[in-house]
Amino acid sequence: MANAGDIVAVLSSDGRFIDVGRACLRVLGTPPEALLGTPVLERVHPDDREEAVRRLARCGHGESVEDGGPFLCRVRHAAGGWRHMETTAFNRPDDPKVRGIVIHARDVTDRVEAEQRLRASEALYQTLARSAPVGIFQTDRDGGIVFANPRFAAIAGLSPDALHGHGWRDMLHPDDRVRLEADWAEAVASGQPVLLNVRFRGADGAATFALCQGSPLSGADGQVQGWVGTLTDMTEYVRTVDALLMAEARTNAIVDAAADAIVTMDGEGIVHSFNPAAEAMFGIPAADMLWSRIDRLIPDIGSLLQDGGLAVYQPGGLPHGAGAVREAVAVRGGDGDRFPIEVSVSAVETGGRRVFTGIIRDITARKRSERDLIAAKEAAESADRAKSTFLQVMSHELRTPLNAVIGFAQVIEMRLLGAGEVDRYIDYAGSIRQSGEHLLAIIDDILDITTIEAGGLRLNESIVDPSDLVGEALNLVAIQAGKRGVPISIDLEDGLPMLFGDALRLRQVLVNLLSNAVKFSNPGEAALVRARRGDGGGVELSVADTGIGIAAEDLPKAMTPFAQVDQSMARRYEGMGLGLSISKRLVEAHGGTLRIESAPGQGTTVTVALPPNRRVVDA
């Protein structure tokens, strides 16, 4: 007993120490002599004393070997702790060397504590496995389930009892089974971790998407013995991704099909998306605009939004300027052509970053329509003013000769001057004739301008001599020039070519121009009619006077039908204001141009330029 490694002691029949081995000091920290005569139960943990008493009692009844096997109890250490001892008791009352109960005690504290730690670890693992939000499993080499937590069963759609073995494979979607078997076999062969996307089909036919991650368990020989891993339910993630992809596809389809340009950009104006309508509008591919600044296409984009540039949102504040429709000028990427646009910008802020979406519309057609509407309105107003002017002038121009006609006719009819005043009556008849001719000239001018405006003018073309044309026109205005005291000079270039045109209409043009020159010249001041070759081989006919002249801003008015520079009722010069307008249209009908050079107080020069194709080429 002195050299025993375990504690060996002899107890008396009443349970006191008779003899104790030296191992007592090493194991319990108590010298053997300190235990002699003391009850053994004083050293046993209170919770274990009842069983110790029972076992000692059985030994006292002569049982030499305990039926229950070794007794595990806790024995107090001298330092105050407890040691776990595995004890056996043999009763040897007849042995003269013993005469008592032999106790054999082995210190198993380390083993017991290791078992306790293992049980605690196992309990912790089981608790974690039961409460884990993912499935946890362990399989054998062939993939049969050895252990799986309840979450694994829920994801697979099976009861916990049905999980063990290969029953979980029956719940796999049919389309995934072959792939799973192949991937599993490859993982077993390579000994590498597995990462599989699988689907489980529930009783209702709905699919559960899961991600299976497993790591191999290798034996001492390095061969894969099984797998441990997790099974994560990815159904909500997959549905969310599908919904996002669907929403993105729907948004992209809307953006791509939109008739307006849609551009997204960041707070620095860097373009992140550029739809097909934007490509068509700006004439530049999306690839060339991505990650470029938007002010490349809209130079004044910064001035469109409040608070400076694109910063329409202030931190912690409300949006400013977002969503408002504003007009701007854009630049086409290819040719640099500038065109008007309408821009509406909205902004969102996520994670401290602002993203702006601009909807851009090309309003070139609308602006053109607006200009056309304004022009039409102005034309209508001008036409209304022209109508009023026409009626005003007509009332004056027609009433004056008609008053003369009626008045002189009444004098003749009533013989107010007596029967002997035949010469006076003849003069009155001449005045009636002149007034009638004046009225006829007015009506002819009105009919001419009406025919021209209606597109009914037809030229009766023949060969015309420019010199004869000038002479005939001078004869027709000679009387008017004589009455006004305005001489007319002639400047004809030698060898003028013959022209092909309507002699009556060309003569009418010259008569109108000469009549105006005589009318607006002061008595004693000469007018000039000139005919010469023009640039390019055509012929130019011009009439110049030194009369009152026309201001540059009044030239368009002088070319407008029924308009005169002096529109007042007390104007000095009579007339319908049709002469220049009719002449211009008659010249244009011959393919020529009529231009006016004039200045107030310096006279007027009107030039008719007939094109080279009006010249008759000598045979």
TrEMBL record:
<keyword id="KW-0597">Phosphoprotein</keyword>
<keyword id="KW-0808">Transferase</keyword>
<dbReference type="InterPro" id="IPR003661">
    <property type="entry name" value="HisK_dim/P_dom"/>
</dbReference>
<dbReference type="Pfam" id="PF00512">
    <property type="entry name" value="HisKA"/>
</dbReference>
<dbReference type="InterPro" id="IPR003594">
    <property type="entry name" value="HATPase_dom"/>
</dbReference>
<feature type="domain" description="PAS">
    <location>
        <begin position="121"/>
        <end position="191"/>
    </location>
</feature>
<dbReference type="Pfam" id="PF13426">
    <property type="entry name" value="PAS_9"/>
</dbReference>
<dbReference type="InterPro" id="IPR036890">
    <property type="entry name" value="HATPase_C_sf"/>
</dbReference>
<feature type="domain" description="PAC">
    <location>
        <begin position="194"/>
        <end position="246"/>
    </location>
</feature>
<dbReference type="InterPro" id="IPR000700">
    <property type="entry name" value="PAS-assoc_C"/>
</dbReference>
<dbReference type="Pfam" id="PF08448">
    <property type="entry name" value="PAS_4"/>
</dbReference>
<keyword id="KW-0418">Kinase</keyword>
<protein>
    <recommendedName>
        <fullName>histidine kinase</fullName>
        <ecNumber>2.7.13.3</ecNumber>
    </recommendedName>
</protein>
<dbReference type="InterPro" id="IPR035965">
    <property type="entry name" value="PAS-like_dom_sf"/>
</dbReference>
<dbReference type="InterPro" id="IPR004358">
    <property type="entry name" value="Sig_transdc_His_kin-like_C"/>
</dbReference>
<dbReference type="InterPro" id="IPR001610">
    <property type="entry name" value="PAC"/>
</dbReference>
<feature type="domain" description="PAS">
    <location>
        <begin position="1"/>
        <end position="63"/>
    </location>
</feature>
<feature type="domain" description="PAS">
    <location>
        <begin position="247"/>
        <end position="290"/>
    </location>
</feature>
<feature type="domain" description="Histidine kinase">
    <location>
        <begin position="393"/>
        <end position="614"/>
    </location>
</feature>
<dbReference type="Pfam" id="PF02518">
    <property type="entry name" value="HATPase_c"/>
</dbReference>
<dbReference type="InterPro" id="IPR000014">
    <property type="entry name" value="PAS"/>
</dbReference>
<dbReference type="InterPro" id="IPR013656">
    <property type="entry name" value="PAS_4"/>
</dbReference>
<dbReference type="InterPro" id="IPR005467">
    <property type="entry name" value="His_kinase_dom"/>
</dbReference>
<dbReference type="InterPro" id="IPR036097">
    <property type="entry name" value="HisK_dim/P_sf"/>
</dbReference>
